[in-house]
Each structure stands twice: as structure tokens, then as C-alpha cells.
Amino acid sequence: MKLLLQCKIVFVSLLLVSGCASLTETQMKSISTFSHEYSKLTLTPGNIIRSNIEVQYLDHKLTVNKDRVPDLDKIRNKACATGCDSLTEMFNELVEYKELQEAHVRAAQALDAILKPIKNYIALLGSVADTDYNEGLSESSQALASSFNAALSEIPKNITSAKNAINAGAAKTTVENVFMAKNDIAKASSYIGTITYWLGKVYVRQQQTKALKIAVTASNPAISTIVDDLVGILDIYTDEKSPIRTIAKYKKYKPIMKQITTEKTLKLRNTISSAGLTDSSYKEGLISETEIKIKLAISEGVATKKVLEAFKKAHNSLALSLEKDPSGESGKVKYADFLDSAQTMIEELKEVGKFQKKLEEALLK
Amino acid sequence: MAGSERIKIMKALTKLIDEIDELRENEDYDYPAKKNLNQCRQKLWIMHQSILSAELDERIAITKAKTTSLAKIAQDLKAADARLNGVAEKISQAAKAVDKLVEMTKKSVELAATVAKIATVL
């Protein structure tokens, strides 16, 4: 009777959990890894804007000062009246540039900030995909298993007691009924325990798949267009055909830099520094430092684009695999695509990290 | 101004600035002439930077607006995470309850054995 009841429970439970595809532990783990790897590094697409500001400002100063060197004689000899035209002009232009510079700095910060909601979303995807829920259950099942083993090991002792009782002439029916009842209860307990653990694990995994499917499917269009936008902005700075001036032009300015630093330009430097700008550009060797920074920033920008594109592809494949049924053939194909793109993303993230570290070292000099 | 127009204008301005830079390299020009070229260059350069700034601001604002839907999805994921923790906790408690059931079974088995022994004596 009791066994029949247990069979009914198993059958009903199987009906409840079947027909709803879930992800395997390996699949869960790979989604979790994808999320954790992305979260490890902070992408800073704004770096390329920041380094471009430096280039533009350097370009401005070098061009301006090259032709204003004769005026510096007038300033030095106090040959001009209150405020030399060129000096006032230069001051006004530098102030105007300062406002532009600040606008670009804000744009760089805003660009970095755009990635924060994406990072947050990916981190939460990882939490929901985490296998910790099932690991917690397996701990309980281990304790459960040892209890079962202990309970089941009691049965042989009780069989001996029952046999002894029968041999001693006790009513066979009474002893047999007691023995059968003991056996049934022990078996029932072991079934319930096993079912509880198995059902629990499958149910949790199904709920994880459901939550991931809803989130990934809903966010996929937004992720796709956001990545396209970000890549478009980075293209402005990294594309060879970009309308932004490139570093190659600065090599010809080295002799001019030497000329400026050898001139006595105290008043000019004071004017520039009073506008809140540093006069570090008058130090020799600035161009080569700036060149390094620009090259690193462009490399970081290019690597960031690759990370974003791999991320978009991985996310899209994941969405398709969840939509189609992860355990089915087409779902498995899309899942394999997701794994490839996720691996590419992880490799490109390492590249970005390399350039970020070098840029940091260059900026600290 | 549309984004593509801004890019076209920036390209045209970059080209003009480059042409002025070449003119400025000409040694035949005296300083006043170069000064005029310089002023022209400054105006073009500041215009270029302003347009670039406007282009960036617009693109960033459009992209930022698209991230608001992600914030809602992130909230839903947080809630799902909390629910899964709750479910796992309940299942864990159910498994512990079965553990107790096993203990009780053991005791009932012992009790049944005692009853059987007593039955034989009686």
C-alpha cells in the first residue's frame, strides 16, 4: 500500500518536472564563467577620448607657438603696450579651448559610465546561473544519504530479531506484519529522500533556465544596439579614415619644441598657467611621451571594440540557444557558438588589460 | 544637424586645416601673412572640436537612454536570484525533515523489535 503511494508520488513528480527543458551543470558553469570573466575587468572606452584631448591640445599649442615666437621678443623687451595682441588672443583661445577640453572630458566619463548597467546586468546573470543553489542541496543530500545508510543498516538486525521471535513461537502473523511494516517504512523514507533531492535540483535548475531565458531574450536587442553604438563611437577615434587628426603629424614638431624651450618665455608660461593649463608641453620629449600614450590608447580602443563585438555575439548565441531549447540539437549548436564567442571575449579582455596596465604606467611617469 | 553631416563637416575641416598647415610651411610668407593663416586655422580648429563635442554628446545620450531597459531586467534578475535562494532553502529544509523522518523510522523499527521480543516472552 505504502509502496503504491510512493510510486504515485514519483510518477506525479516526474510529470511536473518533465516537458520543461533545463540547462546542465556544465552549461550553467560556462554562463557563470562568462559573467565572472567580463566582470573582472573595467572597460574604459573613454581613455581614447582623453588621449585625443591631449593630442588636440598639443597640436593647438605647437601650431600657435611656432608662429608667435617673434612676439615673444616683444613681450620680453616690453615692447608692446598693456597686453600684446597675440598674447591676449592666445589667452582667449586657450580659455575657449579649456571649455571644449572640459566638454570632451565629460564625454569620456559619460562613455565609461554607459558600460556600468551592462556590467551590473552581466554580474546578475552570473549569480542566477551559479551552481551554488544545487551545491547547497547536495550537502543536505549527503547528510541524508548517511542517515539512510544508518537506517538501512538497522534492517538486518531487525530481521534477526524477527526470526528469533518466530522461532520462539510468537504469532507468525504479528511478527511478519511488524517486519513488513519496518521494511516498508525504511524503503519509503529512502525513496522520499532521493526524490526530494532529485526533484529539488531539477526544479531549481529549471527555474534558473527560465529566469535566464526571460532576461537574456529581453535584453538581447538592447545589448545589440548599445554595442553597435559604442563601436561606432570608438571607430571615430580608431578608424584610419577618421576625421580626427592622427599622431603621425607630430613628428615634424620636435625641432619646434626645442626652439620654444630655449626661448625665455616666462610671461607666456605665466599666462598659460594662470588660465589653469599646465605648461608641461614645454618640456622636451613631450611628443614621444604623447605618442606612446596615443598608441596605447588606440590599441586599448581597438581591443575594447573586439571585446564588445565578441560579447554581443556571445550574448546573441546564448539567447538563441535558450530560445530553441538548450538540450535540443539546434540549441546545442547555438550553445557551441556561445562558448566560442565567450572564449574570444575572454582572450580580448586579457589584451585590453595589458594595454590598460601599460597606459597606467605611462601616465604615472 | 544629423550625425552623418557632422562627420562630413569634420572631414572637410580637417582637410582645410591640413591645407593651411602646408601653406604655413611656405618660407615665402612673412609673419603677418602667417599670423592671418594662424588665426584662420584656430577658428577652423575650434569649430572642428565643437562639432566633435556635439557629435559625442548626441551619440552618448542616445546610447545611455538604451541602457534604462537593462536596469529593469537587472532588477528582475535580482528578484529571481532571491527566489532561487528561497526555493533552495525550502528544499534543504524538506530534505532535513526527511532526515528526521528517517530518525523516527529507526526509532519505530527499534520499538517494533522490542514489541516482537516482548511478544515472544509473553
Describe how the helices and strands are arranged:
The complex is a heterodimer of chains A (365) and B (122).
Chain A (H helix, E strand, L loop, with lengths): L1 H16 L7 H16 L6 H30 L8 H45 L2 H36 L4 H67 L15 H9 L3 H9 L11 H39 L4 H36 L1
Helix pairs in contact in A: 1-6, 2-4, 2-10, 3-4, 3-9, 4-6, 5-6, 6-9, 9-10
Chain B lengths: L2 H22 L6 H36 L1 H54 L1
Helix pairs in contact in B: 1-2
Describe the protein.
The complex is a heterodimer of chains A (365) and B (122). With 365 residues, chain A is mainly α. Chain A has helices at 2-17, 25-40, 47-76, 85-129, 132-167, 172-238, 254-262, 266-274, 286-324, 329-364. In chain A, helix 4 packs antiparallel against helix 6. Chain A is elongated. The model of chain A is unreliable at 261-265 and 274-284 (pLDDT under 50). Chain B has 122 residues and is an all-alpha fold. Chain B is built from three helices and no strands. The interface between A and B is large, with 91 and 70 residues.
Compact overview of the structure:
The complex is a heterodimer of chains A (365) and B (122). With 365 residues, chain A is mainly α.
Quaternary: heterodimer
How would a crystallographer describe the biggest sheet of chain B? none
The rounded Rg of chain B comes to 41 Å
The span between the termini of chain B is 106 Å
Q: Outline of chain A, from the CA principal axes?
A: elongated
> In DSSP terms, counting alpha (H) and pi (I) runs of 4 or more, how many helices of chain B?
3
Into which percentage range does the β-strand content of chain B fall?
under 5%
The average pLDDT of chain B is 83
Q: Roughly how much helix do the residues of chain A carry, as a percent range? A: over 70%
Q: Shape of chain B, please?
A: rod-shaped
List keywords for this structure.
heterodimer, A: 365 residues, mainly alpha, 10 helices, B: 122 residues, 0% strand, rod-shaped
